[in-house]
Amino acid sequence: MSLALHSNVIMGQSQINPLQPIRAISSGDRVEGNPKEAAQIGVTTSLSTQTSALSQKAENAGHSISMLQVHDGGLGQVQEQMQKFRELTVQSENGTLSDSDKDAINSQKQSVLDTIGQIKEQTQFNGKSLLEDGFQMEEGSFDSLGSKTESLSINSSLDEIDESMDSINELRSQNGAVHNSVESKMNQYSDSAVQHQSAHSRISDADIAKEVSSLSQSNLKEELSIAIQSIKMNQNTALNLLMPR
Length: 245
What we know:
Blueprint: H1 3-13, H2 19-27, H3 38-92, H4 99-122, E1 124-125, E2 128-129, E3 135-137, E4 140-142, H5 146-149, H6 158-204, H7 208-242
Antiparallel strand pairs: 1-2, 3-4
Helix pairs in contact: 1-7, 2-7, 3-4, 3-6
């Protein structure tokens, strides 16, 4: 192969844009900014959008679980107080108690009712009262606890107390079922987001070793091309000096 032809071949090979491997090495992304990967850019953009949406859904589910935990915690505290209230009611039915004993028990029962009211008022999530107002979710709605306890008084019968306690048990059971459903969705969203991110990485992540090798080859070809051009210039200069004038 002649020097001129060899030079043209190297010049053609050295036309690879050296900025692309540099960009890929610095960013870790071989697709972004690479015109040869135009088809893949649309795929990675779609994967990024889906990953963000799935991650947001998983985060939303996490917030819902936190709210359910606060709700169940409040119900558990009310349940404990209701058990005390029931025990005091049974105790007050003892026929051997004096009037002062009954007054003392009624005072304790009223204190328990006040505590239940405070628990209902303080059980909130992000400013929303969960027990007093109730709330609604995609997986189900929760009734207010107020309607199940406000009718109670120190004179309530055991049947009325038991009815209220059954309602609280039902709410806690519903909470557990919804919690499991939301947690399952959160895990699905999280797993799917990880899979989408992995797919994005397989497509877009740069092979650093390959990019470094490509950059080195590009630099070497550029240096060879410059050297050959220099040799050609020197040859032409020498021929000009030898030619008769």
